[in-house]
Fold each of these.
Amino acid sequence: MNNVMYRVLFNPLLKIMFLISLATTSLMAADLPMADDIILLAQRSDQAAEQFFEKSLFARLKYQYAGQFLGDGHKNELLALAKSSEDSLRKVLKEQQQLRADIEAYDGDDWDELFGDTKLWQKIYGDEVRTIGSKMQITYYIALAGNKTGRLEAAKEIITWCDLQQNQLRSPQTELLKAKAMSVACSDDKEYVKYALEVLDELIGSVQDLKVYCEAAILRAELLEDMNEQLLMKLSGRIKESEYKDDFELNARLAFTGLSLSNTKLLEEVIAVWPESEKLVAGCILSEMDHLRGENSLTDEYLSAKSAYEIQLALKAVLGDSPYDHRELMERFNSIEKFKSAVLYYALGESYLKDEPVLAVEFYISAAGASDKGDETEINTVDLAEKAALLAVELYNGDKNYCDIANTALLSYCQAAGMDAKEYLAELYFKILDDCNSQEQAAEKLRDASESSGYFAETVHLELMKREIARDPTGQNYLNIINLLDKSDDLCRRGGFAVFFLEAVISRVEEYLRTEADFADECYTLACRLSDCDDKDFALEVDLLKIEYGIIAGKDIEQLGDALEEINGESMQKLRCTARLLQAKGEYAESARTWEKIYTFLQQNEDPGACHARWQAKYYQLLCVSELGDMEKQDIIHAVEILQSSYDDIPPFWAEKLNELKE
């Protein structure tokens, strides 16, 4: 132990002073900045800057798109965000400066070990510079959004800082920021235009950073009012090939500049790459128009200069907001031919939905028609046409005077939906058409509707034929429907109707064979086509119809009989097939008994629509009995006469056939 230490340890006064010195040194060391403290402050600085740029994105994009603030609300929004973030950064900076001061004030022998070798001093110093840089980037927006006094003060603060940086650590980013600050100051002092251009010219001539180069080139062109498409496309092309191709704000800046040159290609590309930005861009466009409308400065010249693409985006923003509140703006769009589109008509329809539903229907119909003509929108033609139809039917149900708009909307829907048209809406179209027009007028409108092409035109054609049959139920008219169904590319879609029709006409097939020799053959062919549809809902009925029409048409009896044996269960259709098959085989007794079952069943049910089927069964029963030879001719005649005197509902054709049995 050396003498000094000895004297300290054994001299009470010196010992106390030594202990106090140790305690003070330990305390000082304990209060020194640690790495975690420095890192935490750096994180707070970065977060404050990031939050500003994130929260202010829409406000900044609106300014870039319009080239101005869209009213005091817009300006104050950006100003408040910038001031709040700047204040946060000031607080962080103050704490960083204090940490650095503490480090620099420490004079312990282990300074190098604590702050030199660990590079903590260099880090805190670098973090200060970074925080000041972030603060100045945000101060630029305070200059941009401030009043005259605040604008100049903030701009000069930035310029002064940039000049200090130029003397210490010059960078292209600070030079660009300086030029931007000067461009803000030039609105109050034109001398700054010259200074800004000098900085930009030097920067453009020397900078290697492509982002800085592009922003400088755009700012220079704006100050000189000398932006041209050749320069714009050159800048865009270079960006696409660089590391900045994924920089949304830089690409949006170029795209907005392009709009001033009537170039929408760059904006379309931006939205294609960043689909989520579409809502932001659309909001920018709509905000500018709403602002100008509020200022009574939304001129026709301004609107006409806009591209159809921008209007489409604005309309999407309208649909995402409140179409009613933007009705006046959309009516202005509608007065300009190049802006008329499905989206515009749809948005107008939405704006009129609550207070003028008839207009809403008309606009929906127009929208569906515009989409159908190839308008490239996200509107679903069928859904929109259905919406119009349902609204129109609702109006009609409340007031029959709305029959014309209801029929127009229903027709539009049916034509748009094609094979997907809901049957009940097609039937409503026919019903309301009849309710509102005479038979002749309804038929004329149906003929007009049938002249178009597609599934619904075919449906209308069938409806016309059905009406013609109701007026004149001849074999030729029935055969027309059979032929149309047989030729239909969408027969399976009409399977239910075709089966119903074939079933309904079976009781009159003999009557139509008189004038239409191929009637049964045509019905058989149609049934065969239906059997290929593989529809379980009517598969059994189709099999039986194919067998019955095959028997009537004289097809292979043995083959048809085998097919009938494979069908399980009992039904009126199967009974009829059995009766015809037995008759074709000459088994008249069994056939007569089967026809009698059919007649009895139909008579007991007293179905007015089964009149032809009932007398068909009675005729064939008596015919088979007469073929047996078990009854005298006089007995057959007597049985027919009893029927004729007892019933007055015998259809003419079957009355005639019964008379033939008396001959």
Amino acid sequence: MHSQKKIRVGVMLNRANTSAWAFDVLKEISESDYAELSLVIYNGDKRNRPGNKFTINKFFSRFKYLLSYLYDRIDSRLFKEKPDAFKQVDLTAFLAGIPEVTVIPVAKGLSQWFPQADIAEIKKHNVDVLIRLGFSILKGEILSATTYGIWSLHHGDNKVNRGGPPGFWEMYLGQPVTGTILQVLSEELDNGTLLFKSYAATHKYSVNLSKNSFYWKSGRFFNRKLKELHMHGFDYLKQQHRRDLSFYDRPLYTRATNMQVILFGTRLVWKLFSKGLQSIFYRNQWFLLFGMNKNGEVIQSMRRLKKMLPPRDRFWADPFVIFKDSRYYIFLEEKIASQKNAHIALIEMDEKGNWSQPRKVLESDVHLSYPFVFEHEGAFYMMPETKSKNAIELYKCTRFPDQWVFHQTILENVKAVDPTLFRYNNKWWLFAGIAEGSSISRNDELFIFHSDSPFGPWEAHTKNPVVSDVRRARPAGKIFHYKNKIYRPSQDCSVTYGYAIRMNEIITLNENEFHEIEVDFIEPLWNSEMNGTHTFCFEHNLTMLDAVRKHRK
């Protein structure tokens, strides 16, 4: 523990109400054992008051952006999400008793400077960190008025998109991911000390839906880093994403003009029309691909793989393989179109690649998928995904390979997908994609837990989430050893769910550290009818993966 005292936090607001996502940030701080709210700084500029939103001068000055504002309103009404990240919350009662300072900043263009007298007043409160949830672009001495500076979110990858508005330009330019950073503000726009960086999938049809998701998620960054600051100190935080050089070679983005919105809207209408047309005539179908190699070699040319096609009324996905007594036992998710939930099925294959028709081996009253199967102390266990139960469950095999019974719940109250076990250095490691809120995607963040037993109890990794990137967070199959290295397949859900597989080499794995590097990726480009692949499995001489194709209904 670096410090026994709570971190003293000040919050910067435009007024005594704020968005729901920001209220959650403040509520978590007030309930924590590592930080406390010590000061509220209000923006006293009259231009921030609700009654002054619309004026004639503002109308004419913003006329060339009129369609942009109109799009924002239409988008937020057509594409609503619950819970709404931007629902307004009155903070009057919540902040009662916390010292206040009201500042009328000096504005020059879009930037604001604090008067010297206000800075002196703020310093009297001995605040460690200021969190910016209001005001505009801050300049001057206020940036260094506290011990650890002003922490602020920028909803955009600061290497790709500086400026704003949040979420719009990624969708306009067709960028598959939208970045978010938590930074300590500096004089240079969006180039402060980087504390955290994350990537989420850009919504294809709505900026509002994109924003709702990544605002809920990014609000959690403040408390993750405040907790680390309390435990390890500021030098530790700065080293996590240290950059000695950080160049920016893109435009400084601003609100879209009317002509840009017309172009954007035309493309958007066409995308929505095309999607609707395809849904009438086509259905996605997941199927399997496999190939045999000699001497335990992974097949690395995807064109060599053979198709294993299901009947038209169902799909097969998520293959996991056990090799036993010269035979491959392939456990998979099978979903029949007429049935609500998927079940776990089994295909048997000999060493020549001859395979049997699947048979059902496990079903439940909830959707089952991702049948992670492993052996422990002479018994076989299966850990399928049961996300609708908000739990990770374990099943035991009473007669291999087709009789399974519920064994125990190993994690409760967790929104987890694709749970994956890995035995390493005399410990069991549990990897899973987890969402820490109802509106946060399970594709975005990877969490790790460790235990001395596959049955628990489980302890969270100190750096959770160890990956916050929709392009490589979510597990995509069994972690495996190959040529003295450890590889973790992961899903790339940036273009669409289950678009591609990223292959990552695990370099460091212990209770306090996790480091992996991406070594290669598999995109669904070797066959024109495919548009996704999301689970990879290598066992003995067999390489398997799944893929998705469109076919006529």
